[in-house]
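anyone seen this seq b4? input:
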Amino acid sequence: MSGTTIDIRGMTCQHCVKAVTRALSAVPGVTAAVVTLDPGQATVEGTASPDALIQAVVQEGYEARLP
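predicted toks r here
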């Protein structure tokens, strides 16, 4: 198991945090996802690739990149 941190832009409220958490949790291989509004990051545990995680966040309408 490995952890990945992703910087996320565009989140403005807890609804955004929940939407991104839900999207990341749905990616195959994710065992845990913790999203914080400030500083706009997600920490994801599991075997999912960083590209798959970024794609899930982008599909929710937010910008995402590796730090």
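The two ends are 20 Å apart (CA to CA). Residues 18 and 35 are 8 Å apart (CA to CA). kinda curious what u guys think
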